[in-house]
Amino acid sequence: MSTVKRSAGLLLFRIVTGEDGRTDAEVLIGHMGGPFWARRETAAWSIPKGECEPAEEPAAAARREFEEELGLPLPDGAWLPLGESRQSGGKTVTVWAVEAGLDPEEATPGTFTMEWPRGSGVLREFPEMDRFAWCTSDDALERLVAGQRVFVERLRAYVRESGPAGA
Q1: Each residue of 42-86: pLDDT tens digit?
Q2: CA distances for 67 relative to 27, 61, 82, angstroms
Q3: Which residues does 56 contact at the CB level (< 8 Å), separation at least 6?
Q4: 150 or 20, which is more confident
């Protein structure tokens, strides 16, 4: 019996007022590293997330992966559950949103090693994510891989329903 692979992540956001005067969210996402993603922008970005260890709770995995992928501690803030989504490859992803600021220029991403070029026998190290950026929710919906867009949609709906902070 195979077990379902699970990943968990954290989506930082900050409240902004859109051009239409509506309350919206900007989110912090990362461009996936490595040669496959190097020349791609559309559908080549990800929420900082990663695979859960076998007995690890998703919240613990989300925190660990955030800190590994950005090389920074998670800023303080309440965790807003954005739920789960089953990805096209069968993996289940759980994401929380945290309202917090962070300077993407301070990130020092974790790395992974792979053979590149394929079949060459040469192992090279690449950043898990090669850059991070704050994006409007509309930009994030274009940049994110398809299976993660649902989390931005859920966050945007929550922010628009809740109104400005303190309202």
Answers
A1: 999 999 999 999 999 999 999 999 999 999 999 999 999 999 999
A2: 17, 10, 19
A3: 64
A4: 150
100/39 Cα distance (integer angstroms): 30
User: Interior CA angle at 41 toward 39 and 47, to 5°?
Assistant: 120
Cis peptide before 104 (omega within 30 of 0): no
Residue 93 in contact with residue 49, Cβ under 8 Å?
Answer: yes
Q: Confidence class of residue 155 from pLDDT cuts 50, 70 and 90? A: very high
